Amino acid sequence: MAKFLVLPRVLRRRLAQSSHERELLRRAQNGDREAVAVLLGRHREDVGRLCFQILREREKAEDAAQEILLRAFEKMPQFRGESEFSTWLYRVALNHCLEIKRTLARRESLFGGEEEARCTADFSPRSDTKMALETALDALPETLQIVLVLRQWHEKSYEEIGAILNLPTGTVKSRLHEARREFRRIWEAQNEEI
Amino acid sequence: MKKFDANDEFPPDIAAAFDSYSTPPLSRDFEARFWTQFEARRGRYRGFAGFLRRLWEIEIEGVAVWRLAASTFSGGAACALFFGCFALFAMPAETPRAAPESLPEIPATPRMAFDARHFYAREWEEFGLVRPPRIAPQKRQKLENGGEISCISFENGWV
Q1: N or C, where is chain A less crowded by C-beta within 10 Å?
Q2: Which pLDDT value is given to residue A171?
Q3: How close does chain B come to A11, measured CA to CA in Å?
Q4: Of the candidates A100, A88, A101, A105, which has an alpha carbon nearest to the alpha carbon of residue A164?
Q5: Are B34 and A70 within 8 A, CB to CB?
Q6: How many domains is chain A built from?
């Protein structure tokens, strides 16, 4: 009988992890520098990557990542623990990056020439595949682009993507399906042109 | 061997392109910069001013509460204005059900009696002329040749 009451090892580890994470979050909310450092170390790479994948410029991405992490730790008392910390952080990061991207797009539409010249000056060598990938991604609507980024590069599950974007799993699946179909169409059209 | 699912996965060339996409690592001073700014921001929330600032910066779903309140208030005011104007212009004009009460009689004053004829007469007097003749009713005259003529008669005689 006692055998049945013992929790499986995976579940026990997960529970232990979540309680450890909760403790860490509580300490970070109280301003414990050590806890903040641990959380920063865990999540900064993911946030940095996400920023670069959306903004495509190293400096801008790094500034955005700084701002996101600072905001996140500043707003820690507002984190209610209803979702995973990483999910919440991804949500904050996505909102911030998309806001920057929209601002940049608006500015570019106003001062198109200047921005273009600046981009050319900042240009770092990219392979053709990378360029093609970025072009195809940019051609997608923002909603499809985001689900694709989270799935392909961050290997998030449908449930996790749903939690980040506040969408039901079914919607995530259909968006992902549409995103893949659209991306493939654009990619093939690009290859035909070449 | 895993089968390629065209509906849920990318073909190998696209999957390879995604896999080969690399992102640059964060710069070395990333963490140092973070801590500098972290401490600077922490300082902003110290003391009573910090407490007020924290209240001011409370957010719901990433939107500051004061912004939400302001937009709600302005939206409400705009709606109220719209519906107020709508109600005002859509209101039907009421037909009076009873005859209006007769106005009290105004006593005649010399000024009120000063009509066009009096004015004309006064003009004559002021210019030192004779009093203007009064228009007499027209009289029909029979002519010798059998025709008729209407004449205007004045006090001074026929014209």
Answers
A1: N
A2: 94
A3: 29
A4: A88
A5: yes
A6: 2
